[in-house]
Structure formats: C-alpha cells, structure tokens
Specification:
The complex is a heterodimer of chains A (294) and B (283). Chain A has 294 residues and is mostly helical. Chain A is 73% helix and 2% strand. In chain A, helix 10 (211-228) runs antiparallel to helix 13 (262-293). Chain B is mainly alpha-helical. Classes of the chains: A mainly alpha (294), B mainly alpha (283).
C-alpha cells in the first residue's frame, strides 16, 4: 500500500468505493449498531414503550439455564465437528498426496461435497436415518439399536454432527492437500535418510510445517460449526428433541423470529459478535506472524 | 523394498476408497430413492439398486413439485430462483469488490484507509449474528420478497475486495504508466489492463461465490415468504416438513438430486479455479 498514486482524480475514487461502502453501511454497520442498541433496551410486548435497562438482558441470559445449555452445546458441537472434520480430512489428504495411480480421480471424488449446502447434506442423511424408512436406521434397528433421533436427543445430536462433518471434510481436504503440496519433498527425504520412519517424518517434519494451514482451518471450522450448520439443524431436528440440538445461533433464530423476544435475541447477537471478533483477532495474530516469516 | 511400497500404497488406496464411498453413498441412495415409487420407499425396504420410476418422478418434480402427500413448488421455478440469486450475488459482489479494490490500490484520497478498514471489518461478522436487525433494515426498506433484499446484504464481504487488492498490487506500475502516456484514463486502464490481468481471479471467485449463493439458507428463509420465490434448498426443507415416513420421498429425492446437480457440476468442471481461488482468498 506504499508508493505514489497512479491516478490523481479527485472524485472518481469515491465513486468507485461508493457501492461497497453504501452496501456495507446499510446492511452491515447499521444492523450491527441496532443490535447493540436493542440489547440494552426492553420493550413491552406491544412495542409501545421502550426503556433502557443497561446490561439486564445479558444478566437474564446468563441466569437462564436454557441459554447456558445452548452455549455448552455449541462449544461441544463445534469441537466435535471441527476435530472430526479436520482429522478425517488430514488423513485423506496425506493419502491423496502420495504418488498413486488415479490420484486425480480421488481428488475430484473427494472435493465435490464442497458444493453442497449443510441443509442439503442434512436431507441426504435424513433419508438414510429416518427411523421408519431410512435404510441405515433400519439396519441399526435390525442389530438391536433403538434408533429414533426424533425422540433421542443424543442420537439427534450425533446425526447433526455427522451431516455437518460429512459436508466439511472436502473443504478441509482442499486446504490440507494444498498445504502438503507446498512442502518441499527434499525435507521429507532428508528426514528419511536420517533414518526416520514415515510416521515419524510426518509428525516431526510435515505436521509442524502444516501448522499455519491447520490453524486457519481450526478457525474456519469453528465458524462453520457455529453459524453455517444452522441449515443442517433446521432441516434435521429444528433444535429438538427438547433442546438437544439448539445451538446458540438456532436459539437466536427461535427467540427472535418465533418467540419475538427482540431484546433478548439482540443481546444474544451481541454475545455472538464478541465471540466472532475474538476468533478473528486470533486468526489475524497468526496471519501477521506468517506474513512476518515469509 | 518394492513389495513394501506396494503394500503401503495399497493402504493409501484403501483409505481413499473408504473415504470416497462414505462421501458418495448418501448421494447414491438419493439417486436410488428418486427412481422408486413412494410406496416402495414408505415400506422401509428400499433396494440398493435403481428402480423403474425415474422418468415420472423427475417429470413430476420438475413440472409440479407436488405429489399426493407433499406439496411443493415446481423444481423449474425454484431452480430459476436459485440460479438468479446465485448469479446476482456472485456478479454483484465481484463488481463491487473490483471497483473498491481498484480505488484503494491505484488512488490516494482522504479517508482511503478509513474506507479500507470499514470494508475489512465486515470480514468479522457473519450475517447470522446480525440477522434480526438486518431483517428489520430490509423490511423497513420494503425489500422483503425482492431480489434486492435477497442478494444485497449478502454482497457485504471483504473477501473479494481483499483478494482483488492482492492481485492489483502485483500489477507492474510501468504497465499503467505506459497506458497513461498513450492517453488512457483510469476507467480505460481498469477495463483494458486490470480486468484482463485479473481474469483468473475473477473466474475463481465466481465459482466460490456461485456455490455460496446457491447454498444460502437462513437469509432466503426469512426474506422470502412467497412460495413462488422459494430457492431450491429452502424448497426441499419445506417439502420435508416434519419428515413423516408416509411422504412422497421419491419426489423429495428427485428434487434433491436436481438441486445438487448444479453446484456439484460447477465444482467439478471448474475444480482447478475453485481450489486456486479458495487457497488464494485465505492469504
């Protein structure tokens, strides 16, 4: 961003940034400000009177066992989705990075689920696990497992995790494979010449070099598990049975659009914003570090 | 030694084949489901091989979307809605990002850094966290059930601008200086020099954004209340409703297969661009 300007027009640059700035101001800054404002207000049910209540909405949330439950669930769910999707993808990427016959075909066959919405992934798995018509559900019942995710909260959570992981593996695979391909072969060969087994060479040479990719993916997968899985939950369980799959974002949606608790849901928005900002800051620190090294 | 290598690769093949099977199986079963009649699926003993009702299921889903126990919007309508939405989001975001990045890289003007940071901040907050106030803004502007309301808020994002900024920074200054000496103005330079140079990045971003747009869920769910505006992803979930066993699963699956076909085809056809684009936007 250094150096002299190429062009010296006075008004043209403003005209050029205007579309993005206007869209950002109207659909990003303004709503974000409103969320913060709403989160410290309380309106009566008819919307006739609004009073300033400070942090009361937040206090109420943190005293609400359902909200705390959804927080706990979100973290558990994200950890499960991110860890599983990352490990499976890393294993597949390491294998696909070997000089195999048909490696290209494997890559294509592993990448395409990137194209699917989480809700679509959920529909596919629903068809397999629907308690009375799904063939995998029937298979489970045949071996004596009482499979009915519409009644069993644990099973519902498991199914949402499965569908969310299934969709995310290919995204991680793309990045891990790119990361692996960027590692000079000579480094690994040097380790092998020194007598390291291929497992040892992986953990002490390859994996540390993948750290930037892994770190980036941990952040991306957490964001994915927190926000993008809304569609999967809505298609599969609608947050139920009970509140077994009601994550923070799903609760925000239910409170805001079904229960019309505008102020409480605004407070929930603000909490999520804070969370995302922490995550992003985390990511930037690492990007900065990497730029420094390169 | 040679033998050992073969067995090692055999292990790699095994893992990859298992991975591919797990990924492909649900889609295969959806295809199978779309070729049987509702009764066969409803009995809960769906065969593992395709049946003989493929043509009628697809015609029914495509033209009517409604069966005996499911009411939906015709796939052709939903498909058109999804296409319009995905293409508008992709093209709109690319256009907006290119202009902004061009201004930030090649001009110096007061507030330049302020604008840059304002754009940059949007990286942070996904639409989902500010969903209710965003909905209110769109509804106050009278944009519910409109293409503008559906797509404009999704064009707020820094990724495109940051990507193009990165690309533009690598353009040699001499190139633009030469064009300036030949009498080209800034817009002419953008059109004849910068855009052709940025074409690979534009293509890559288009693939990513098309898939992103096609797969939108929460936002269209809120903004469109008329069934004629249903996108295909929303439409399928609406068809499912409470996902009873006695339902026209054959039609749901035919719709699902058609809904998946478009983005999967885009990803496979433009795989190279997609991978390049994803890995580059990360930087």
């Amino acid at each position: 961003m250094k150096g002299k300007a190429t062009f010296s027009n006075k008004f043209l640059p403003y005209l050029l940034v205007a579309p993005q700035i206007i869209v950002t101001a109207v659909f990003f800054v303004w709503p974000a400000v409103q969320a913060i404002q709403q989160s410290v207000l309380r309106s009566d049910p008819f919307g006739l009177r609004t009073t300033f209540v400070g942090l009361d909405n937040f206090r109420a949330l943190f005293a609400d066992p359902y909200y705390l439950g959804s927080v706990r669930l979100s973290f558990l769910f994200s950890a499960a989705v991110a860890l599983t999707a990352l490990s499976v993808a890393l294993l597949l990427a390491v294998m696909a990075n070997k000089p195999l016959r048909g490696a290209k075909v494997y890559k294509t066959l592993l990448i395409w689920p990137y194209a699917l919405a989480p809700a679509m992934a959920a529909v596919l798995w629903l068809f397999l696990f629907q308690p009375s018509i799904g063939i995998l559900a029937r298979g489970l019942q045949d071996i004596g497992i009482h499979w009915n995710y519409t009644l069993n909260g644990g099973q519902a959570l498991l199914l949402v995790i499965l569908a969310s992981v299934w969709k995310q593996v290919s995204y991680n695979f793309i990045f891990f494979l790119a990361g692996l391909q960027a590692i000079p072969k000579s480094l690994i060969e040097a380790a092998r010449v020194d007598g390291a087994t291929s497992t040892r060479a992986f953990w002490s040479v390859v994996f540390p070099l993948l750290t930037p990719t892994t770190f980036f993916l941990v952040v991306m997968n957490t964001v994915y598990a927190f926000f993008d899985t809304f569609g999967a939950i809505d298609a599969l369980t609608k947050g139920g049975p009970g509140k077994a799959t009601e994550t923070m974002v799903y609760k925000l949606y239910v409170d805001g659009f079904k229960n019309f608790k505008i102020n409480s849901s605004a407070a929930q928005s603000v909490i999520l914003m804070a969370l995302v900002i922490v995550l992003t800051a985390f990511q930037f620190r690492f990007i900065e570090r990497r730029v420094h090294y390169l | 030694m040679r033998r050992k290598r073969v067995s090692r690769n055999g292990f790699a093949h095994l893992i990859l084949i298992v991975g591919v099977i797990v990924l492909v199986f649900p889609v295969y079963m959806a295809v199978v489901g779309s070729t049987h009649d509702a009764a066969t699926i409803g009995r809960g003993r769906l065969p593992l091989t395709p049946g003989s009702h493929m043509a009628e299921n697809y015609v029914q889903a495509w033209a009517y979307g409604t069966g005996e126990r499911v009411s939906g919007t015709p796939v052709r309508t939903m498909m058109a809605n999804s296409l319009v939405m995905a293409i508008s989001i992709a093209l709109g975001k690319i256009a907006v990002s290119i202009l902004a990045a061009y201004a930030v890289v090649f001009f110096r003007f007061p507030l330049r850094m302020f604008f840059f940071w304002l754009i940059f901040i949007t990286l942070m907050l996904p639409l989902e966290v500010r969903i209710i106030p965003s909905y209110k803004v769109v509804s106050d502007l009278g944009l519910l059930n409109s293409l503008a309301g559906l797509t404009l808020p999704l064009m707020v994002s820094a990724t495109g601008t940051l990507l193009f900024r990165q690309v533009f920074l690598t353009v040699p200054k001499e190139l633009l200086d030469a064009a300036k000496i030949d009498g080209a103005g800034p817009m002419r330079c953008l059109w004849s020099i910068i855009l052709p140079l940025g074409r690979p990045s534009i293509a890559a971003l288009f693939v990513i954004l098309f898939v992103y747009g096609w797969n939108q869920y929460l936002w269209p769910l809120l903004i469109t209340t008329e069934r004629s505006m249903d996108t295909i992803v929303i439409g399928i979930v609406k068809m499912l409703g409470t996902s009873e066993s006695l339902m026209d699963w054959n039609l749901v699956m035919a719709t699902t297969v058609m809904a998946m076909a478009v983005p999967i085809a885009v990803v496979i056809l433009f795989q190279k661009w997609l991978v390049k684009g994803l890995v580059e936007t990360e930087k």
